[in-house]
């Protein structure tokens, strides 16, 4: 089903992989990409459970927009292990204006397809998705 605002559909694989991340913890992160020619959001990369934040950050292209989901694990002040699922709207300043517009207009509908997102981040440069930003948002 296409998004009225941007005409982007969401590939079934996007939701399926998200459910795997959320329920089975088979992925640490998922990078999503909009295929403009096919007019749909697809899964570009899956992060293995053993991969960490550096691996995730390295998958965000320097000059192209992406959506990403990251399962962030942390310890509470009482040393209790927890995790939060972050949705990242990655839109670097160096990406094309058209691309930024398409990602911005498709974001809300795409995010609604992923039931279980707990925290959202908007980022235009690597400092806005730094590990310290994730840590500050879970406390």
Automatic annotation (TrEMBL):
Keywords assigned by UniProt, alphabetized: Actin-binding
The record's GO molecular-function terms, alphabetically, read:
actin binding
Pfam families to which the protein is assigned, alphabetical? Cofilin_ADF
* Gene Ontology cellular-component annotations: actin cytoskeleton
Q: Could you tell me which InterPro entries the record lists for this protein?
A: ADF-H, ADF-H/Gelsolin-like_dom_sf, ADF/Cofilin
SUPFAM superfamilies for the chain: Actin depolymerizing proteins (SSF55753)
Instruction: Give GO terms for biological process.
Output: actin filament depolymerization
Ranges of residues in domain ADF-H: 5-139
> Family, per the entry?
Belongs to the actin-binding proteins ADF family.
Name the UniProt record assigns to this protein = ADF-H domain-containing protein
Source organism (scientific name): Lotus japonicus (Lotus corniculatus var. japonicus)
The beginning of the lineage is:
Eukaryota, Viridiplantae, Streptophyta, Embryophyta, Tracheophyta
């Amino acid at each position: 089903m296409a998004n009225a605002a941007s005409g982007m559909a969401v590939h079934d694989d996007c939701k399926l992989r998200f459910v795997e991340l959320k329920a089975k913890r088979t992925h640490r992160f998922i990078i999503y990409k909009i295929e403009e020619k096919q007019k749909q959001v697809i899964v570009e990369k899956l992060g293995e459970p053993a991969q960490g934040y550096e691996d995730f950050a390295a998958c965000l292209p320097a000059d192209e927009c992406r959506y990403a989901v990251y399962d962030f694990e942390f310890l509470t002040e009482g040393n209790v292990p927890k995790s939060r699922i972050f949705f990242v709207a990655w839109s670097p300043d160096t990406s094309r204006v058209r691309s930024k517009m398409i990602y911005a207009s498709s974001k809300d509908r795409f995010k609604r397809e992923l039931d279980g997102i707990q925290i959202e981040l908007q980022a235009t440069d690597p400092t806005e998705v730094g590990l310290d930003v994730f840590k500050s948002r879970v406390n």
